[in-house]
Specification:
By secondary structure, the chain is of the alpha/beta class. The protein has helices at 18-27, 40-61, 97-109, 143-154, 176-193, 215-232, 251-260, 313-319, 329-339, 348-359, 363-374; strands at 73-75, 78-81, 86-91, 121-123, 130-135, 166-170, 198-203, 234-241, 263-271, 277-288, 297-302, 307-310, 345-347, 381-382, 388-396, 399-407. β5, α4 (143-154) and β6 (166-170) form a beta-alpha-beta unit. The protein starts with 17 loop residues before the first helix and ends in a 6-residue tail after the last strand.
């Protein structure tokens, strides 16, 4: 797959734990043997033959209707994470870069009844994804187990039960000059075992290198990741720190990452209009190769859910920030009151169609809103008589799914 792996004595086998991976890497160190001498004319002939074959395949594809690959993640129908691409998440220290990456992973493995608010981000619905999450910073005693539980929970899974779509590894314990080797070994192994589309998360990518300022090492790693995307049906999301006091991603790894990436996302705390610090987090798209860059997503950290949630219009106004909130609760409850004005129950599909048209959102997004709202007893919806109600989802198991408004009991008000 890459020149760095050509002299490996034996492939690792089995599902590798951290200890087993270390043992495999120790046993399979790359041997410094001289490259076999090859006839230069033969090498030139092979290269030219391969380039000509690739040229012909491109020209053949150009004689037909070109069908775009389905995206991995979208935002209001804009392709945010494109299939078979490298993507970058950057931010300063403490800006919730890893928490953003964890939410993207949770979205990719989310169950159908998941009620987590992913800020209008959606995954491609007609495919099952697998994720290889490679961490470089957190400990294995309590931090990574908690990360694993949190991702499962956000995705609607039992936090203490293994999810076969999610594979989490750490390379923190290895010396820096061995981390790139370990990363490439384990990704080769996972790619052999996982048959569906694989999303690789490197958190953080600079720790996969001996030095983030080593241009040659950075180029080799990105070449490996590019080949992984092109030839082996993978998509890469890399997390990287910014230089202190700057909005530039760190070192040669950051510069090359910006060049190679299809999408670059920056996350960080926003200052008010008078430059005062706030608790509002701005998620902005610095680069989007395949479309118009969307407006920023405004978030805040919620102590109750211990996760990032949409900042409301009141949150933004209070912080002195001029932005558009992605919190649709108020608008949604208003339209729900209108929908139930002359009805006691509404079939699920009918309600989805009405709200999708009213809010100009996809039915998948509306379905997520309604599922979350039906589990939230603290959000009230006024019925035709002005009485506070909660949204109830009923039916199923062979029966038609429908929604109805359930009057709040006096003791719940």
């Amino acid at each position: 797959m890459n020149a760095v792996n050509e002299h490996i004595i034996e492939e690792p086998t089995g599902n590798l734990s951290v200890e087993e991976l270390e043992a495999d890497v120790n046993a399979q160190r790359i041997v410094d043997v001289p490259e076999p001498q090859q006839d230069s004319e033969k090498v030139e002939f092979d290269l030219v033959a391969d380039m000509l074959a690739t040229k012909e395949s491109i020209e053949l594809a150009a004689t037909k209707d070109v069908v775009s690959l389905p995206p991995v993640i979208t935002l209001n129908d804009t392709h945010i994470i494109k299939r078979n691409s490298i993507n970058l998440i950057q931010g300063a220290y403490g800006s919730h870069k890893s928490r953003l990456a964890e939410n993207l992973v949770a979205l990719l493995i989310a169950k159908g009844d998941c009620s987590t608010d992913f800020w209008e981000l959606e995954r491609y619905p007609h495919e099952t994804f697998s994720v290889a999450y490679i961490d470089t910073e957190r400990n294995t005693k309590d931090e990574l187990p908690r990360v694993l539980q949190n991702i499962r929970k956000l995705g609607g899974h039992n936090p203490r039960t293994a999810c076969k779509q999610l594979h989490l590894y750490t390379i923190k314990k290895y010396e820096r000059n061995r981390r790139q080797e370990a990363t490439q070994l384990i990704l080769r192994k996972i790619r052999q075992e996982v048959k569906n589309h694989l999303v690789v998360v490197l958190d953080v990518i600079t720790d996969c290198l001996k030095s983030f300022n080593n241009e040659e090492a950075s180029l080799k790693l990105y070449d490996f990741l590019g080949n992984l995307c092109e030839e082996h049906d993978c998509t890469v999301i890399a997390v990287i720190h910014e230089n202190p006091g700057s909005s530039k991603a760190r070192g040669h790894a950051g510069s090359e990452g910006g060049n190679k990436s299809s999408t670059v996302i920056r996350i960080g705390y926003e200052k008010s209009q008078d430059s005062a610090p706030t608790d509002i987090i701005k998620l902005e798209f610095l680069k989007l190769r395949h479309g118009k860059k969307p407006s920023p997503i405004w978030l805040r950290f919620c102590e109750k859910t211990y996760n990032l949630v949409p900042a409301s219009k009141d949150d933004l106004d209070e912080a002195g920030i001029n932005g558009t909130s992605t919190d649709r609760t108020d608008v949604l409850t208003t339209f729900l009151s209108k929908a139930f004005a002359d009805k006691s129950t509404i079939p699920r599909q009918e309600l989805l169609t009405f709200l999708a048209d009213a809010l100009q959102k996809s039915e998948r997004t509306i379905d997520t809103y309604l599922t979350r709202l039906s589990k939230d007893s603290s959000t009230w919806i006024n019925d035709s008589e002005g009485d506070p109600c909660t949204l109830s989802k009923e039916g199923g198991k062979g029966k038609t799914l429908y929604y109805r408004l359930k009057k709040m009991e006096p003791e719940d008000l």
